[in-house]
Amino acid sequence: MPLPTIDDVRQAAARIKPYVHHTPVLTCTSLDHMAHAQLFFKCENFQKVGAFKFRGACNIVFSLSEADAQRGVATHSSGNHGAALAHAAQLRNIPAHIVMPHNVPQVKRDAIAGYGAHIIWCEPSQADREATVKRVVDETGAVFAHPSNDALVIAGQGTAALELLDDVSELDMVLAPIGGGGLTSGLALAISACSPRTMVAVEPAGADDAYRSLQSGTLQPSVNPQTIADGLRTSLGDLTFPLIQQHVEQIVTVSEEAIIRAMRHVWERMKIVIEPSSAVPVAAVLDKRIEVSGLRVGIVLSGGNVDLASLPF
């Protein structure tokens, strides 16, 4: 499959515009003071299904031919992509089959079930997720929609960057969390083409496969990742990795303690709900893992689906 281009991102923006929210960009004076920078938060926690994933899911679902659409769609997901694909499929009135590890937060289980998808449980390992979804696709004939390593998904996620660049001028840097790389590669592709700026990805130290991959120049698998940021436990793919190599300046890692502190700061200072994965790039700024003093920095808050029964603070 060829790598997506900026034209694919622009086509995705037109295709999904009737279905997605143009999410707001918020600022916070107290966090600016803590960072010694101007921070602009792209709030994908306010996107439909509570996460940026709805962009890519919409793009793939509404790109399907009528014949392919009637076969339905299938994926494996720790939650947000599954909810996004289920809702997009619901909008097109086609079946959705979602393979989920049994340890995902209850809020994400409930969301997917609420969109009418068929849930299939699996063990929380990449190998079991992939084996289970392959069986589902073989049995149902559904179209597989990878959570991140798909050109249509990547292009869909990149539309968030088009909005951010339209809404905020003269950014020096954009930060985003990285797991499977769909968001980061889509953002980086769009930013490098439209308004060349520094793109930095941030990853939990306990799930640092993307960092190791960029350092070594070869894909490094995520093996038994240990992080509260459950959306960032997956591995890069053969589409996301080359885009990241081309367009992402660096990847930095943050500790679990820094993630939790950043999440709490956003809840307390901005009065908005974000999930741990969203807090990862905020942690990089507040924990001084990257130098941002005096800069105008865009930070993508990737989602807000939190299990309120098990908050880390």
From TrEMBL:
<dbReference type="GO" id="GO:0030378">
    <property type="term" value="F:serine racemase activity"/>
</dbReference>
<keyword id="KW-0456">Lyase</keyword>
<dbReference type="GO" id="GO:0070179">
    <property type="term" value="P:D-serine biosynthetic process"/>
</dbReference>
<dbReference type="GO" id="GO:0003941">
    <property type="term" value="F:L-serine ammonia-lyase activity"/>
</dbReference>
<keyword id="KW-0663">Pyridoxal phosphate</keyword>
<feature type="domain" description="Tryptophan synthase beta chain-like PALP">
    <location>
        <begin position="17"/>
        <end position="303"/>
    </location>
</feature>
<comment type="similarity">
    <text>Belongs to the serine/threonine dehydratase family.</text>
</comment>
<dbReference type="InterPro" id="IPR001926">
    <property type="entry name" value="TrpB-like_PALP"/>
</dbReference>
<keyword id="KW-0460">Magnesium</keyword>
<dbReference type="InterPro" id="IPR000634">
    <property type="entry name" value="Ser/Thr_deHydtase_PyrdxlP-BS"/>
</dbReference>
<dbReference type="InterPro" id="IPR036052">
    <property type="entry name" value="TrpB-like_PALP_sf"/>
</dbReference>
<dbReference type="GO" id="GO:0000287">
    <property type="term" value="F:magnesium ion binding"/>
</dbReference>
<dbReference type="Pfam" id="PF00291">
    <property type="entry name" value="PALP"/>
</dbReference>
<dbReference type="GO" id="GO:0005524">
    <property type="term" value="F:ATP binding"/>
</dbReference>
<dbReference type="GO" id="GO:0030170">
    <property type="term" value="F:pyridoxal phosphate binding"/>
</dbReference>
<protein>
    <submittedName>
        <fullName>Serine/threonine dehydratase</fullName>
    </submittedName>
</protein>
<dbReference type="GO" id="GO:0018114">
    <property type="term" value="F:threonine racemase activity"/>
</dbReference>
